[in-house]
Design a protein that fits this description.
single chain, 4-stranded antiparallel beta sheet, Alpha-Beta Plaits, 4 strands, alpha+beta, 7 helices
Length: about 140
C-alpha cells in the first residue's frame, strides 16, 4: 500500500450539533494525518459547483440547500490507502446501515444528513481537494 490523500467534509448537520471535535478525534484515532482543515460556509454557488455531477438528479436542490445552510469543515486526510480507509471509517451512506463504530453510525441522522462526505476514488479526491484547497495549503 502507498500513502495517499483523500478529501473529507464534516457536514453542516454535524457542525450544527457541535460534533466536529468528536469527528476530528475519530479521524485521528483511525490513523489519519490531517494535512489541512478549514471551516467555511459554502454559498449555493460553491455547493452547486462542488456537486455539479449530481445536477440532473432529483435530490440536487435539496443537497445544495443543505450544504449551504451553515458552516462545514473541509479536510485533506492522509494515510495508507486513504480513499478506501476514509470510506470505511465513515460507514454506509445511510447511518441505519452503517457498521457499529463508524462515523455515520455514531453521528449521522439520515441518508441526507449523515455527518460526513468522502471522495469515492483517487480521481475524485484530486478534483475535490483542488476545488477547496490551493496548492500551498496542502504542503
Amino acid at each position: 500500500m502507498s500513502i495517499e490523500r483523500t478529501f473529507a467534509i464534516i457536514k453542516p448537520d454535524a457542525v450544527e450539533k457541535n460534533l466536529a471535535g468528536k469527528i476530528v478525534a475519530h479521524i485521528e484515532g483511525a490513523g489519519f494525518r490531517i494535512v489541512s482543515i478549514k471551516k467555511l460556509h459554502m454559498t449555493t454557488a460553491i455547493a452547486g459547483g462542488f456537486y455539479a455531477e449530481h445536477s440532473a438528479r432529483g435530490f440536487f436542490g435539496e443537497l445544495v440547500a443543505f450544504m449551504s445552510r451553515s458552516p462545514c469543515f473541509v479536510m485533506c486526510l492522509e494515510s495508507e490507502d486513504a480513499v478506501k480507509k476514509w470510506r470505511d471509517t465513515m460507514g454506509a451512506t445511510n447511518p441505519a446501515n452503517a457498521a457499529d463504530g463508524t462515523i455515520r453510525k455514531l453521528f449521522g441522522g439520515s441518508v441526507g444528513e449523515n455527518a460526513t462526505h468522502g471522495s469515492d476514488s483517487a480521481e475524485s479526491a484530486a478534483r475535490e481537494l483542488a476545488y477547496f484547497f490551493a496548492g500551498l495549503e496542502l504542503l
